[in-house]
Amino acid sequence: MKITPKRLSGVVEIELEPRQDPRGYFMRVFDAEIFAHHGLPTQWVQGNESLSIPRNVIRGLHYQRPPHTEAKLVRAASGAVLDVFVDLRRGSPTFGQWDSVTLSAERHNMVLVPRGFAHGFCTLTENSTVIYMVDNAYAPEAEGGVRWNDPALAIDWPLTDTPIISAKDQAWPTLSETAPLAIDFTQPGKPI
């Protein structure tokens, strides 16, 4: 595994290393020892999968409020997505900034998004399957979101047509209408 820090503190891209032979390949997608060595979460409590059939589907930007914040380990098992994350951590020097990683089944890469971020993605291909692990149980009462097209964020979504978005995701507030999360950005994931 090759682990590369991204621009926003606590976010890392993880490049997996498939071992191929005539049958196909085998690859490790999680190693607690390697993750712990890099200070990454090692206790995953739920695994989720979503299939987006058409291209131009946007899901997000979602987060959980404290004490139910969650880190996510995200990868594309089929197809490709632009994975986007927005820093919502109160006091963080990168609060309100976004970054992204293109995840694809072909590239065999993942992104770890720490607690205190809003997260979403846009499908770049048809039949994109996204699998992600979370380190905290989902709590419906703690669900929050930031509008995908917030002009203050100006996320550069790679759309080739009108986006396909749920009514719920279209109704999220803008970043200026969202309270920063009480997360210690110096220790990603630790509540204040």
What is the count of β-strands? Answer: 15
Q: Summarize the biggest pleated sheet.
A: 6 strands, antiparallel
Range of strand content: 35-45%
Distance between the termini: 31 Å
Q: Which secondary-structure class do the elements indicate?
A: mainly beta
* SSE string, helices as H and strands as E: EEEEHEEEEEEEEEHEE
Q: What value does the Rg take, in angstroms? A: 16 Å
Mean pLDDT: 92
**Helix content, binned percent:** under 10%
Output the keywords.
single chain; 192 residues; mainly beta; Jelly Rolls; 6-stranded antiparallel beta sheet; 2 helices; 15 strands
Describe it for me?
The protein is mainly beta. The protein has a single domain (2-184), classed as Jelly Rolls (Sandwich). Helix content is 5%, strand content 40%. It has helices at 32-37, 167-170; strands at residues 2-5, 12-15, 19-21, 24-26, 46-52, 58-64, 72-78, 80-87, 98-104, 109-113, 117-123, 128-134, 143-145, 183-184, 190-191. A hairpin with a 2-residue loop joins β3 (19-21) and β4 (24-26). The model has no long low-confidence stretch (mean pLDDT 92).
Mind sketching the topology for me?
Layout: E1 2-5, E2 12-15, E3 19-21, E4 24-26, H1 32-37, E5 46-52, E6 58-64, E7 72-78, E8 80-87, E9 98-104, E10 109-113, E11 117-123, E12 128-134, E13 143-145, H2 167-170, E14 183-184, E15 190-191
Antiparallel strand pairs: 1-2, 2-10, 3-4, 5-12, 6-11, 6-13, 7-10, 7-12, 8-9, 8-11, 14-15
